[in-house]
Design goal:
Radius of gyration: 51 Å
Strand order of the largest sheet: 1-4-5-6-2-3
Largest sheet: 6 strands, antiparallel
Distance between the termini: 86 Å
Shape: elongated
């Protein structure tokens, strides 16, 4: 048995029996024994109990009176040999022995799971001889339970760590497979844009190897027209925002440029991005846009041609009648004796033909008025969203940033859905054309709404294009006036006619510092206002 010894260096006691009665009669010592929160006992050198308190009797379950004057072997024979060995060791060395654990020793075994830690210190007289042994015992049952639970928890945690390590290893293998086999471009960079790692797809798509790119920024790879936008997106990423479907062009090793669509996030100071080559898709979209424009031009030309032929046919008959009656009337008046009756009859026919001509003109104007389509309640927010969906291809192909600021909860307006949609689409396409030649600054289309109480809803279509000459603002809504090289000058005129037929207004104003703003105002019907109230 090994013991932890104290720091006492006393000579071995030669006499094992010393009088200790004066000590045990001390009232102060009695009080300490009665009030101490731990077990206390005093043993003579022959292992007899001189003093013991109630806490220590918990070990064997015997009362205090059954201990006094009796030996340990008589009271607790199960631990007598251990106690006698400890006492003999202290008598030989004069040093304390601490940290001895003892389990409960009740005969019925009811406290065998309780544990005490004991401390054994010699009591010496003035000459330095040991006259007895002070024993202190502190119950550590709860501590042992906690230690056991902690050990079990540590073992469970170790098992969990092993399982996690295996899982991480599997995930790392899967990640490596995705990194190496994925066709999309993966890149890791720091917040300054310096490339830390790329996957093998870069070599397949653009011809670049890790040795070509790692440690460098991508600035020299960017298409000159995309650098400003790309740096702005990098700043957004560094600020903690995500990049969703950001497109730019990167140089291939053969000198050509490829379009890439990026998704990127910032995490712990690093930027993780994946890019997909959309060059072929962009080319297909461009071809589709060209075909759409050609189809739209052909459709417009066919519509104008059909409209012109129809108007000419309708106007030709009354004009022919007017000319014939005017000629006849002049002949009657040029006679030597003017025939006023016949001349008057011809002039009556001219009046009738003129009325017919007026009706033709009115019916032509009605094509762009209320009679051209059935009107119902229109959700402006939904309608604008549909228009922007149609124009998305043109916006993307011209690298135009869209800001849809149409508010929620707007009242509905009474209008022809198709005509109103055509007006907003026309204004949107005009804005796209106005910004197509802009370089050196952001191309931005903004559509916003404004509720002018109590009865007017205004939609503003605003671009950052080249703008309209101040001298032309008074004429841009005139029929056949255009500043475009191949324009017909009918679009804005027809748009204003449609809006005015709805009881609204279409105005234009210069935007500071660049571009133009078109303001489309429509009256809010009572049905639309009540609809808004019910939604609220």
């Amino acid at each position: 048995m090994q013991y932890q010894r104290g720091q006492h260096n006393q000579s071995q006691v030669t006499s094992l029996e010393r009088p200790v009665q004066p000590l045990t009669n001390s009232p102060e010592l009695q009080l300490i024994y009665e009030t101490a929160p731990i077990g206390l006992a005093f043993l003579s050198t022959d292992c007899r109990y001189v003093m013991i308190n109630q806490h220590l009797t918990e070990i064997c379950g015997l009362p205090i009176a059954n201990h006094i004057g009796r030996t340990v072997r008589e009271t607790v024979p199960q631990v007598a040999e251990q106690v006698e060995s400890i006492v003999q060791a202290i008598l030989r060395t004069g040093e304390s022995i601490i940290g001895i654990e003892v389990n409960g020793q009740r005969p019925d075994g009811s406290n065998k799971d309780r544990v005490w830690i004991t401390y054994w210190h010699p009591l010496k007289d003035r000459s330095g001889q040991i006259v007895g042994i002070n024993v202190a015992a502190e119950e550590i049952t709860e501590r042992k339970r906690i230690e056991a639970d902690l050990a079990a928890s540590q073992e469970e945690l170790r098992s969990i760590n092993i399982a996690l390590a295996e899982r991480v290893a599997i995930q790392a293998q899967e990640r490596d497979r995705i990194w190496n086999l994925g066709q999309d471009l993966f890149v890791v960079s720091d917040s300054t844009g310096s490339i830390l790692n790329i996957n093998p797809a870069w070599r397949t798509a653009l011809g670049w190897s890790p040795d070509d790119l790692v440690g460098k920024t991508a600035e020299w790879l960017l298409h000159p027209e995309d650098r400003e936008r790309s740096f702005a997106e990098l700043a957004n990423l560094s600020a903690g925002r995500k990049t969703l479907h950001f497109e730019n062009r990167l140089k291939s090793k053969d000198g050509s440029y490829r379009w890439l669509s990026w998704f990127a996030v910032q995490d712990h100071g690093l930027i993780y991005a994946t890019g997909r080559d959309v060059t072929d898709l962009k080319r297909a979209e461009e071809q589709l846009h060209i075909l759409r424009r050609e189809l739209a031009d052909a459709s417009r030309q066919a519509t104008v041609g059909a409209m012109t032929a129809s108007i000419a046919h309708e106007i030709k008959q009354p004009l022919t009648a007017i000319m014939a009656n005017a000629s006849a009337g002049l002949r009657w008046l040029k006679r030597s004796v003017p025939d006023l009756a016949n001349a008057q009859s011809n002039f009556d026919h001219i009046v009738k033909a003129s009325k017919q001509l007026g009706e033709v003109i009115d019916s032509t104007r009605a094509m762009f008025g209320k009679a051209s389509a059935e009107q119902d309640l229109v959700d402006v927010r939904l309608l604008v969203g549909n228009v922007l969906a149609l124009a998305r291809g043109e916006l993307d192909s011209h690298q135009i940033v869209l800001r849809n600021e149409i508010g929620e909860g707007l009242p509905e307006v009474t209008a022809s859905r198709v005509q109103l949609q055509q007006v907003i689409l026309n204004l949107t396409m005009n804005a796209v054309e106005a910004m197509s030649s802009v370089t050196g600054r952001e191309r931005r289309l903004t559509i916003r709404s404004c509720l002018d109480q109590p009865a007017t809803l205004t939609i503003t279509v605003e671009d950052t294009g080249t703008g309209i000459e101040p001298a032309h603002f008074d004429r841009i809504f005139d029929p056949f006036f255009t500043t475009k090289a191949h324009g017909m000058g009918l679009g804005l005129s027809i748009c204003r006619s449609i809006i005015e037929a709805h009881g609204g207004k279409l105005l234009a104003s210069p935007r500071n510092p660049f571009g133009t703003s078109f303001h489309l105002s429509l009256p809010i019907s009572e049905a639309g206002s009540s609809g808004q109230s019910s939604k609220s």
